[in-house]
């Protein structure tokens, strides 16, 4: 009999809320997380807007000395993991520390630390570079810190696949539980990319919206007047657990994960494949693994970046898989409110998808105002809407042609 994998805890740090409850309520209100970047002087940049985490104090949960030895992306990951673990009540029950694994993704890792220490080296010489540079920079260190704090000794590594990183991490964690490698997986993603170097790189490749005078209107997935994505930051962590393990300890179950699809575009380092073969395959594979028909899907949490090419290609992928039903299924983009969290996007968006199933509510796509003939599906421009959802999918597509689709189900005994 195939094992079942359920979600028993969630934690979030986002531009519209630094815990899961605040994040969810902000989504339902349609809040805006985008503004002029405050982290550093952006006056010389062509793009001056972003979706930053606000009012974040790492010392609320992390020892001050240890916090100084962590890059911001690790602080976010530890914060969100702490909330997810507490939410799951795992520590209050019997568990085997050797059967609790961690797979926390990041697309960029400690780029803030890397940039800062490079400037130190230029200004003061090689001997002044911090000995903590490497352990603060490497993307896998977030999972390392979580295991050190809690003593979890199960599988622990990191997935890096650009904007699909967190979804790949969740999917691979799901597979690990199915294989019997762990009973519990702490998984998702974290990102803190707000540095001059990262902003310049994304801006110069013309990937970002330059709507500097209207930051609250900049992230507009599927809208005809979209002009690029808005860089965001934060972390989204979920607790995946083998069903019998969760049932035995009386855990609250939010939803079940029943499908995971992966594919590659094999086309271009940044642009999506025009005929949408890659993303349509990842959706198709997730449906096939779950044994679910397209018309059974009640909601799609889109990758929905607000770039001209991505939104058009994702729309085409949905049409290729869902046929006429594509025009009936509600689709919304969480990025319309929080921007694009890069390697953390799939973790935060998985939480949005799971809570949509759990509460029977779908948040709107903010700033969807002018229809695009090439993006002509139902993107929930006005919301939230109430909808009984049995199955929902979350899409993530990354530079390099990496595609991942997660399929969640309403929990049933």
Describe this structure in words.
The chain folds into two domains: 5-248, Thiolase/Chalcone synthase (Peroxisomal Thiolase, Chain A, domain 1), CATH 3.40.47; 258-408, 3-Layer(aba) Sandwich (Peroxisomal Thiolase, Chain A, domain 1), CATH 3.40.47. It has a ten-stranded mixed β-sheet, with helices on both faces. A two-stranded antiparallel sheet has the order 2-3. Strands 11-12 form a two-stranded antiparallel ribbon. It contains 13 helices and 14 strands. It is an alpha/beta fold and 413 residues long. Helix content is 34%, strand content 18%.
CATH class call of the largest domain? Alpha Beta
CATH level 4 superfamily of the largest domain: Thiolase/Chalcone synthase
The percent of residues in helical segments reads: 25-40%
What is the name of the CATH topology of the largest domain? Peroxisomal Thiolase, Chain A, domain 1
Major sheet attributes: 10 strands, mixed
Q: Look at the helices and sheets and give the structural class.
A: alpha/beta
* Overall average residue pLDDT: 98
| Uncertain spans | none
Record the strand order, biggest sheet. Answer: 5-4-6-7-1-8-14-13-9-10
In percent, how much strand structure appears in the residues? 15-25%
Overall, the morphology is globular
CA(first)-CA(last) distance: 15 Å
Count of DSSP H/I helices: 13
Based on the coordinates given, report the CATH architecture of the largest domain.
3-Layer(aba) Sandwich
Task: Give the number of DSSP strands.
Answer: 14
**Secondary-structure element sequence?**
EHEEHHEHHHEHEHEHEHEHEHHEEEE
Number of domains: 2
Oligomer: single chain
Radius of gyration: 20 Å
